[in-house]
Amino acid sequence: MSIAIQGVKGSFHHKVAQTFFESNVSVLECMSFPLLVDQLVSGNATAAVMAIENSIAGAILPNYALIDQYKLTIEGEFYLDVQHNLMALSGQAIEAIKEVWSHPMALIQCRAFFEKYPSIKLVEATDTAAVAHQIQKEQLKGIAAIASETASQIYKLDIIAPQIQTIKHNETRFFILNTKEKQINTDCNKASICFRTDHKRGSLATILNVMSDCKLNLTKIQSMPVIEMPWQYAFFVDVTFEAYSDYEKAKKVLEIMSTDFKVLGEYKNQKR
Predict the structure, then answer these.
(1) Does 270 reside within a domain?
(2) What is the count of structural domains for the chain?
């Protein structure tokens, strides 16, 4: 089994792959989400780990688009407690740091910390752990990374400020993806679906009422523009349920009432 991850070893995606599958799982390092999807679709990877939303920074909309565009199947979810640490080459204090490089989402999640250090320039990079690796490889002084404690250990950097995220309880939700045909899984209790509604008053409210009547609990709703249809929106929705039969009933009704209805995945709810 080979799992595609965004980033390199020591990244949060790597941690999820190790925990969801097994600690010594083989990973394919991808420096962008489109490349990750390419590795999965081409068959080079048997599954992929993709971040989809963060409790501080919110949803990663382009990733919803990738899942929909390539008809990927969500086979599971994983919530990871994300602790961001500021790290640099040994012997440097924070006063010596001129720039901090990291993934844009990590920078957003730590922005309040850097308000105390206005002279530090924040620079977006492709991956948290990859920056840590680059600092060590090129011996970059005056440059720090925001990354995991595991990355600091792998790439031998000193943590000069631990847990710098704005909100200490910081979680990222990841999808486990594959390209298998969607099969009926009556043991599941959560589903991700996608649909469009008629562009008229009350259309979305009517569909939400159907979900409620069918005993579905809506845990997430995310709208995204339909590129080829200006001012039209697709809705990505997560629902949980106690009985698969209730969900199955709702699916039949939603297929009739909505447009372009899709089931993106049916899986176990990890957040109880």
Answers:
(1) no
(2) 3
Ramachandran quadrant class, 218 (left: phi over 0; alpha: psi -120 to 50; beta: rest): beta
Q: Check which CATH number belongs to the domain holding 204 and give it.
A: 3.30.70.260
Burial 66-102 (b: 16+ CB within 10 A, else e): bbbeeebbbbbbbebebebbbbbbeebeeeebeebbb
Q: What is the pLDDT at residue 185?
A: 72
Model confidence over 181-232: pLDDT tens digits? 766 677 899 999 999 988 778 889 999 999 999 999 999 999 998 888 888 8
Instruction: Report the C-alpha gap between 164 and 178 in whole angstroms.
Output: 34
Q: Percent of the chain beyond pLDDT 70?
A: 99
Same structural domain, 22 and 74 = yes
CA 183, CA 53: separation in Å to the nearest integer?
A: 25
Helix (H, G, I), strand (E, B) or coil at 49: strand
pLDDT at site 123: 98
Residue 272 belongs to a domain: no
pLDDT attached to residue 202: 84
Domain span including residue 91 = 85-161
Q: Residue 39 contacts by C-beta under 8 Å, 6 or more apart in sequence?
A: 4, 28, 30, 45, 48
Residue whose entry in the numeric block shows the structure tokens 């957040």: 271
Q: Which distant-in-sequence residues (6+ apart) come within 8 Å of 11 by Cβ? A: 5, 127, 128, 129, 130, 147, 148, 151
Query: What global pTM score does this model have?
Result: 0.89
User: Helix, strand, or coil here: 22?
Assistant: coil
**132 within some domain:** yes
List of the chain residues with pLDDT < 50: none
Going from the C-alpha of 202 to that of each of 199, 227, 253, the distances in angstroms are: 9, 23, 16
Q: What sign does the dihedral 103-108-113-118 (CA atoms) show?
A: positive
Residue 241: its pLDDT value, please? Answer: 97
The CATH number of the domain holding residue 157 is: 3.40.190.10
